[in-house]
Amino acid sequence: MSNEEEKDDDKKVRIKLERHIWPDEAEKKEQKFQRRLFTVFIVVSMIFVFVVGWLIGNAKVIQINPTTQEKQQSKIDYVMDLLENNWYFAKDDPDIQEHLMDRALYGMATSEEDPHTTYFSSDELQNFTQSINMNFVGIGVQFTTNEGVYLINRVFKNSPAEKAGVLPGDIINKIDGVSVEGLTTDDIKDRVRGESGTNVSIEFLRGGKPVTLDISRAEVNGTTYGKMLQDDIGYLEIYGFGDSTGYEVEAYLDEMKDAGMKKLVIDLRDNGGGYLDAFVDVVSFFVDKDVVVMKQEYANGSVQETLSLGGKYDNIEDIVILINEQTASASEVLTIALQELRDNVTVMGTTSYGKGTVQITQPFTDGSALKYTSSKWLSPSGVSIDGVGIKPDIEVKLHDILYEAYLPMEETDSFTVDQVSNYVRILQEGLDYLGYSVNRTDGYFDESTLTALKQFEKNLNITQDGILDKGTFEAIVSSVVKEYSLNEAKDAQLNEAINVLKENQ
Q1: Where are the transmembrane segments (predicted)?
Q2: CATH 1.10.101.10 residue ranges in the chain?
Q3: Topology, domain 136-220
Q4: pLDDT tens digits for 422-479?
């Protein structure tokens, strides 16, 4: 949760933050701030470089009196000059000064105590902002990667990818005819994104077979999706808390209210958080005006309260909030605020991530920024969930296969009857989730596994040899992701949420 700069919009809460450098002060204070950050990193780097050089180097060592040098110029300037002009590998870097400065800032912002404070280069800041706001020119998919396998796990609503027929579970195989083998995640993004209106041709592996789709790139926006599920039950999924989230949520709540919605599922699973302003916008739709919705505790012991803005929807009688291990930051703030402030809220799923700190993003004039922790956030009643998370009122887990760490098989691997492997275990769990009959899920390849695998191969119209190889394994994983994403009957948490709301009548 970050970016607490005041906005002119009358709906936004005004928050005064002490001891912070704001954007309008950045130009005057940036140089002084950067030099302070740079000093410690360069001193440590200098000691490391020289000690290692003295220990293992064969070249002649030139003795230098640091005291004399420091009298002539500051240590930071001296080390900068030394690395720029005397370091052997500096000749290979045309932007050596800029890169040395970046390394210093990365080092200063890195600590074991606070993984959420970090330095962003200009490009990294842009990517970070886009990831929160979900506004970029591309095709509108989210994918995971593991050892070179790029698996689509989400296709955003009304995106170019959805319109072209991309499905969750598809595996990216080629982009514009070029294999993705050996490419990095950034390589994939660079090839998929481009100018609006241009086309990209992507070959996916779907159920073990290649499917090529031509997709027209466009601006992708949207952090929220909503719809009516059944009867008077609505569904609101929030992917993240970006600049436009409040407006998006309001539009869906209006639409569902007109459709007769009285009960609501708020899906915050895999929501990693976002901006404080966006959280305030959203929580205000569910509580009365001027209610304390969160608190912030600063290093000096002071506590600041954040109030709701108004605009509550009175038609909502009951709410179930879905959370999981990846529900973090602003989504946790929303969850515990509604849990404490309303009598008709049930939290369901598994224990959340437990990110209980607030970050501010301080931009610099060169486009880079420092995102640093400014405070710890507390619930309206003063509870901190940092490092602990939110325990659901009703714990509901998904099928075991949906918690597996997916490791792709090697081309040379294969398994059949009477063999034992973790790959066989994942196969068995996948077959069970997809509705095939297996007698065991312990990794021993028995006859029931063979029968189920052959039936799966037959249904997908792929070679029915009953052998678990790389292609078949990827087909199983792809089918599981597709089934979970597109078949609501396979989502145990969502179905239990619906049951709870039906019972509350």
Answers
A1: 37-57
A2: 403-489
A3: Pdz3 Domain (2.30.42)
A4: 999 999 999 999 999 999 999 999 999 999 999 999 999 999 999 999 999 999 999 9
